[in-house]
Amino acid sequence: MAETSIGESAQLRAALVDTLRDKGMVTSALVEAAIRAVPRHWFMPAGTPTEVAYGYDSSVVTKRDQDGMAISSVSAAYIQARMLELAELRPGMTVLEVGSGGLNAAYLAEVVGPEGRVVSIDIDPEIIDLASTALDATGYSSRVRVLVADAEHGVPDEGPFDAIIVTVGAWDIAPAWLDQLASDGVLVLPLIMNGVTRTIGFRRDGDHLASTSAEVAGFVPMQGAGRHADQVLELADTTGGKVKLAFDSGAPPDLIQLNGVLDADAAEFWSGVTVSHGISFADLHLWLAWYLDGFGRLAADEGSALAARKRWLPFAVVRGAGLACLVLRDAMQGAGAEFGARAYGRDGQVAAAALIEQIQAWDRAGRHTPPTFAYWPAGGDRSQIRADATVMNKTHGVVTISWPTSS
Ligand SMILES: C[S@@+](CC[C@H](N)C(=O)[O-])C[C@H]1O[C@@H](n2cnc3c(N)ncnc32)[C@H](O)[C@@H]1O
């Protein structure tokens, strides 16, 4: 627990609720009351400053793996609030939270009230211990059932659930979640689609799920049976710094051709597509993940030449012996930026052309209206998939995306 005075934490909590309402993350009286009621700072790791505990968008890491990667965290307030709203909860409901920590479970207990039921599971016994301790200290332990379980298998003895809220990055929808979701239930999950995540609220629509809304938010990765491993290619650059290129699935063939691709100077190409400062273009990343063959995510060491050249975004495309990454330059008389492609290697210009083509396609057909998603479990009737939808294969079904402007 963070050390803080009651007055200070109450003030910060009230300010947080105001911000969440102003930004449209809290829209219902039930969720607002829950966030007002729960002492958020009690669920934070020791030493967390109270302002951070009550920050609008600060997530706080609670555990890292041996490589230093975050594997558990207290999610940021705005995304917790948004997920609670997406779940369309009412008093008396039974809810499953996948990925525990205590805080969100306490919010859920407030929302569903004494007639409701909250089950919160985590694969990591240490996290369940921490969650139990904090729930005990704040008086919620009798209102939340915490269990160690791998979410992939669900918790068959505890359902059916009116809502399932998954708070860990999911590459697919486990069949157990659909088996344990009530027929009119809501599933909220951060779904990873070719490396880009959207937290999506889904409702059943016949034998598939249809999205109700989606948010941009990242989560720690799923462990256990539902874990998905990216294919990662490590490229050395001229400074000896390392650049990693991660492919979610379907990595391009013959990646060996990329050896030495970062050795030569890069050329830049520009799309003519601009964005004003302060306007989100997160849907461009989603568009590229869905429509750009050879799409991968880039990560560069601090000291690498790629990182030293500023204004690049961590998305790239591969063509043969070439690589192009998404870059920005000033535009609109300083009021915005233009998207472009920085090309490396023998086929870099081909890769850049493919990237520019999709930036321009997004500008024409994708940027003005958010997409909708659907999930079609394996074995169901897929004849109803809309003709204008694009399909992405998963292990247990397919996800589709439709951009209203392209229909
Ligand atoms: C972002 S944290 C949960 C945050 C929490 N719900 C909150 O609001 O503060 C994600 C958690 O998911 C857990 N997790 C990862 N894979 C899991 C799995 N297969 N089954 C259950 N829990 C899992 C991790 O151990 C981690 O504690």
TrEMBL record:
InterPro entries: Methyltran_FxLD, PCMT, SAM-dependent_MTases_sf
UniProt-annotated location(s): Cytoplasm
Gene Ontology CC, one term: cytoplasm
Main location: cytoplasm
GO molecular function: protein-L-isoaspartate (D-aspartate) O-methyltransferase activity
A Pfam family assignment: PCMT
GO BP, sorted A to Z: methylation
Catalytic activity, EC: 2.1.1.77
Transmembrane segments: none
Keywords tagged on the record: Cytoplasm, Methyltransferase, S-adenosyl-L-methionine, Transferase
Gene3D superfamilies (alphabetical): Vaccinia Virus protein VP39 (3.40.50.150)
Transferase keyword on record: yes
Enzyme class: transferase
Similarity field: Belongs to the methyltransferase superfamily. L-isoaspartyl/D-aspartyl protein methyltransferase family.
PANTHER family for this protein: PROTEIN-L-ISOASPARTATE O-METHYLTRANSFERASE, PROTEIN-L-ISOASPARTATE(D-ASPARTATE) O-METHYLTRANSFERASE
Protein's name according to its UniProt entry: Protein-L-isoaspartate O-methyltransferase
Annotated source species: Micromonospora aurantiaca
